[in-house]
């Protein structure tokens, strides 16, 4: 899916390029995993449920961050849908507005 980020930029005649290298992907995953652990610790500390889904969308033009949390099972009940399927669906949802 790493190529799709830059395809969107190209489609919008944007000269920027995201670093989608494997090394950068590893760094991003490490950051995400660390943050999930911290969120879980906070939820446990405050006796709250851990969200089952957290979607974050950063709008570069507006310098704003939008967050959407869900607490019910979203995809775990689907035996055919993989994490890649979910990520691609979300990417298309954001890309198409």
Instruction: Report the portion of residues in β strands.
Output: 5-15%
Could you say which overall geometry the principal axes of the C-alpha atoms support?
A: globular
**Would you count the extended β strands for me?**
2
> How are helices and strands ordered from N to C?
HHEEH
Oligomer: single chain
What is the C-alpha radius of gyration, as a whole number of Å? 16 Å
Instruction: Tell me the major beta sheet.
Output: 2 strands, antiparallel
Quick structural summary:
This protein has 97 residues and is of the alpha+beta class. It is built from 3 helices and 2 strands; from the N terminus they run H-H-E-E-H. The chain folds into 2 domains: 1-50, no CATH class; 51-97, no CATH class.
What can you see in these coordinates?
- By secondary structure, the protein is α+β, with helices and mostly antiparallel strands.
- It has helices at 2-11, 22-45, 83-95, and strands at 53-59, 64-70.
- Strands 1-2 form a two-stranded antiparallel ribbon.
- A hairpin with a 4-residue loop joins strand 1 and strand 2.
- The model has no long low-confidence stretch (mean pLDDT 85).
């Amino acid at each position: 899916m790493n190529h799709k980020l830059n395809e969107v930029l190209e489609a919008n005649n944007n000269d920027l390029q995201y670093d989608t290298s494997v090394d950068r992907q590893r760094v991003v995953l490490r950051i995400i995993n660390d943050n999930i652990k911290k969120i879980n610790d906070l939820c446990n500390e405050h006796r709250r449920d851990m969200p089952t889904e957290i979607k974050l969308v950063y709008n570069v033009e507006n310098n704003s961050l939008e967050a959407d949390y869900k607490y019910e099972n979203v995809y775990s009940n689907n035996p055919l849908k993989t994490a890649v399927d979910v990520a691609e669906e979300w990417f298309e949802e954001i890309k198409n507005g």
